[in-house]
């Protein structure tokens, strides 16, 4: 023991001596000047000693001074925004002057465009890009969520927190009334249909959003609503790199819906009966026995007060893991990856689990042939896709006990047959709902360089999808306990086979100052969907669930369908550039769609775009402020197929009838056919300015656009005497105008100290219906109005609650004090739908914005992602479905009207009304919000430590998702989360998450 101790003391002494001798080295002061290529001094250049924390910055004359301890071996590192990092060995010198070269990478960056790539400086269209770093900044379930708040003009709204749900994406607003407004997704060059949840976010390298006609017209009929180009990770030249990323998140409910507790509910029911004269305050106990049943009265006496939300909701979790290997040689590059994701919701029956794999290879054959393949595979299981158990929990009375004295669930806790115990759904076997999906998406290509500059490329993209859906509801499931009946089951299957074949010819040639590029395309895309569904009732043995439908007592429905469509396309694009100053792009695409009738199948979509690289003009040469100044303008037309594959042929429906003494089956037209249907077309004008200042320290874009959509596919109302209510026609016209602004800035840049970088964007969009056809100014049934946005809320307007002082006036409307007061638009003392409904507002915000802030200090980095949506209106079904105020169900904990509390917020409870009169007017709220979407703190271990661990990189992080929401709906009206597309409903509570993660490379 003494020997070991002596050796330890000796070792420590040696180390101390070594450190002392190092510290006693002769330090010298190194100084010098830092210039650019034009021999102009550079101010604020960071000068550091490689491997040390010491550093300084150049002064106003480009001069620096720095004390160096080990001058013989020290290496100085010079870093400056907009310039290439430079290293210079000191070698004992006292004077070290350097010239830094400009880093043109920002302008030379490759941007993915339709059917190819371009240098950023040569792009004439409106394109926003989201890179790997931004995608990894926030924990997301699917790729669309990574776009939220990241790109001007791109709006991403989460529909719910239900595991497996996808958000809604709108690029520059909504322009179609019936034909759909979702963008086209293209993955590695192949159009991608269906759920993007099949793609693990860990395999995505970048997403480029094409917004104007010049950028999207190349996709013709598919690009009317914008295009999102997704590029997956590719192998790189070098030795194999093994990467792992893993995270685990603790998910909690963002906030309980504010329902009444026992005391509040009891008083509300009493008030509801006071209103109709059934409650005598002079004899409260006797009155309680009249208005509460035996079970409820007994529970009141026991002091029962149950929080049913708390019983139904438990912490969930998210876990995400990815493992990949990438590498290659000059001729062969490859990547292979595996991924696993699990999202367990806060409701036990809701979850989403996904397994991913991806394979990519790129191989040169000789000097002119290149072949490659990308394969993305996914298998997922989703539980509780349609489950809405929280609905029954919110309505359940707080004075109802869930368990009896033996701990057994009580089927009807209050004795009310319309209020079964929501916890019964959690009993194994009472409710089983599972969706299984399998998908293989492949992008294959072969490219040959015929002569210098001339290439032919063949893209083939088979896409195979299959889903298997099953739903079983036992007789003790809450839905059947309300509706009654035997156990039911449903089984559905769908198989989708799609493929894309593209033949692409490109030619690029530089002749002195002239740059010419041409792209030609001939392609065909086809999709075939085969669906079948069976519904049964009366499962003899409930453990069979939906696996043995043939044993059921009744088959309640059998359906099957086959749907196919094809698009044949030709496209040509010409790019011309002169002297890196003047750019021109001409595009023409022709699409033929099988969805339309003969003579109407083809649509033609031209566009023209030009750009002026002002910064490259001679009169700006030599200036030191501007790095980039480019003016862009484009004009073009894009289309939208927008109808089901057989809409022009009409549909038939089977109908039984009596013929003689027999029952027979016949067929009648279901839809009136219209063989004259043609494409919706959107004409778009775009003007943009790209800018960059101070050696790349500030970059940004300003953009204005105007879109006009004609031949809108929409229903024309018909007289009932025709036998049809409506027919689909090309009728209307709509318009979208907007402004976008985006900026990125490096505010503070100190590689060895504190740095601050930010990206921010703001945009506004104004949609408007210009015409509805046939001279109509309104389609009230669909809430479409000329001069108004494409989606509005058209309803009665609540202006308060009738007060006692206005009792005589209320009587004219057949109402009483305490009931909702509506605005009488025409002052005729009659509230009627024809004259008194009005446009209350629209989900369209006045403006939206997003920002990402990144702060770093040595190995630490803090990122904050936030976005805002201001000036919109939302419709909340909470205040319609959980605000009945008649005492049968629990109620939102609102400030309701009573004679002693004459509020104008909400009406007086009434036991004779299942809902307040005009209750729908209570649902409209200011939808504005500011949301910090994610805060992440990460730490990157030092290079020295990582190398000792035989690794390339090691980072750990902790983050919080949805840590803060500021919104009138939340703070004033006790809502939870105002983020939704049109209507705030409930099928899964909003959540927040605390997440821990690690990233490693070997």
From TrEMBL:
<keyword id="KW-0732">Signal</keyword>
<keyword id="KW-1134">Transmembrane beta strand</keyword>
<dbReference type="InterPro" id="IPR023997">
    <property type="entry name" value="TonB-dep_OMP_SusC/RagA_CS"/>
</dbReference>
<dbReference type="InterPro" id="IPR039426">
    <property type="entry name" value="TonB-dep_rcpt-like"/>
</dbReference>
<dbReference type="GO" id="GO:0009279">
    <property type="term" value="C:cell outer membrane"/>
</dbReference>
<feature type="signal peptide">
    <location>
        <begin position="1"/>
        <end position="23"/>
    </location>
</feature>
<dbReference type="InterPro" id="IPR037066">
    <property type="entry name" value="Plug_dom_sf"/>
</dbReference>
<dbReference type="InterPro" id="IPR036942">
    <property type="entry name" value="Beta-barrel_TonB_sf"/>
</dbReference>
<dbReference type="InterPro" id="IPR008969">
    <property type="entry name" value="CarboxyPept-like_regulatory"/>
</dbReference>
<dbReference type="Pfam" id="PF07715">
    <property type="entry name" value="Plug"/>
</dbReference>
<comment type="similarity">
    <text>Belongs to the TonB-dependent receptor family.</text>
</comment>
<protein>
    <submittedName>
        <fullName>TonB-linked outer membrane protein, SusC/RagA family</fullName>
    </submittedName>
</protein>
<keyword id="KW-0813">Transport</keyword>
<dbReference type="Pfam" id="PF13715">
    <property type="entry name" value="CarbopepD_reg_2"/>
</dbReference>
<keyword id="KW-0998">Cell outer membrane</keyword>
<dbReference type="InterPro" id="IPR023996">
    <property type="entry name" value="TonB-dep_OMP_SusC/RagA"/>
</dbReference>
<feature type="domain" description="TonB-dependent receptor plug">
    <location>
        <begin position="119"/>
        <end position="227"/>
    </location>
</feature>
<keyword id="KW-0472">Membrane</keyword>
<dbReference type="InterPro" id="IPR012910">
    <property type="entry name" value="Plug_dom"/>
</dbReference>
<keyword id="KW-0812">Transmembrane</keyword>
